[in-house]
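Problem: given the chain below (217 residues), write out its structure.
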Amino acid sequence: MKLQPILEGILREEEEKQAISALDQAMGTSFKTMGAELEANKEELQQDVEQSNPELNEALGAVAIVGAVLAAPKVVELIIKGFSAVVNTFKKIFKLNQAKTEEDQEKVAHTIIEFTHKWHKSYIKGLKWILKVTGIFKKVGIKDEAQQLKAAEAIYYVLIASLAVYSGVGAVSAFKGAVAGASHGGSFSLAAFETAMTSIKSSEVVEFAGKLGLKAA
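Solution.
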């Protein structure tokens, strides 16, 4: 038995653990930042949304919700500021279009699933709170709580899809494979992610990802 391949495997596993830990910490930091920024600038954010003029769409899916957010620059600024710790940490670990092979793409997908699992419910609820408190839900006419939660989930998975596409993951199949192998794969919604990936090339989502610093070449 050769020792070098074993040692290399151990090192790769340790590097992956460190990456997941760093990204997990960044998720916590980002979540706290968004909450603090919302509380500190609530009135200004509400005025921004009130003055906004989003294009209303009867089918209020991911693209329409992103469009409504983009119509309120201060809300975009809040999300960018809040999510920046995750984006900056992610970009240190995964370079632009780094995942070129199927194996690389599944590795990125696995890492995303593992570091988001602890925070995804809190993030979706947090985004729902932001969309509600700032008045975006009122602006676009989403009154039903279940629909509000679905809209917040759509924004969340657009953020996750933007991370994936930035690193080179262009297909849902990479996440399907990673879900099976990830210890927390069951908490990841493939359906919501697939919807986000379908929306990722729309002009609104491209603009949103670009503002986050995640526009793929």
